[in-house]
User: Fold these one by one.
Assistant:
Number 1:
Amino acid sequence: MKQAQHPDLGDMSLTGVMGALSDPIRVGLVRLLADGRERGWGELRAPVAKSTLSHHLRVLRDAGLTRTRQEGTRCYVELRRADLHERFPGLLQAVLSAAEDEDVGSQVGLADTPPPQ
């Protein structure tokens, strides 16, 4: 399997990052990953098909929001918090605060926890 490509810090664009954050599922994934932990793709729960979830994860990675690591047949993802802060200071915190205030992406969670009612 081919290794994932990640944009360098200088190649991350504001419009690319904002475009990636234009979907509630992707905002929910960012909210979930904001705890700083690396997560296996199988740990993630979203109200979409696995192929659609994979698409959302690729969009986040291609924009530079996340880093994907492959280990055998498993894939792991983490938020590039430090890189985002360096490139766009304050943007991630503003997005996370607004998403929490408006409850954007709350339908995304971990597979071992029940979905919100």
Number 2:
Amino acid sequence: MTERLSNTANQYIGAAKQTIGETLGYPDVAADGARQKSEAETAQKVADAKVEAQRLERTADNSANSIVGGAKQTIGQTFGLPSLAAEGAAQKSNAETQQKVDDANAQIRGAGHELEGKIKQKVGDLSNDHSMKVDGATTEAQGTLQRNV
């Protein structure tokens, strides 16, 4: 989350520099601001992609553990092996619980992205920065998708 805050702050600072440079006629300041903003946006996209890849990996692991646990439970029950059945039930339950935790975390991240997107859109409106408004709309939509997964 600290990386997200840092990237967002750098986007805002870059946008402010760009606007100030353009308004006051300092092309070097405007260019530096545009560069800073662009680098922060790119860094955030990379960070978001890493988080999503980790989430998908955990989902696959949870699904596999749930299936294996269910199979152990069924085999243990079928062949009268209570310890295998209990081990399988516990493995399946742990995997399902972990998936619920991961889903709740995704909901929280989604709500954060929605809020961040709304803020970016407002800042874009105030600074007349069309690309920030578009980025804000994209971030808000990303958050809505995360909350609906």
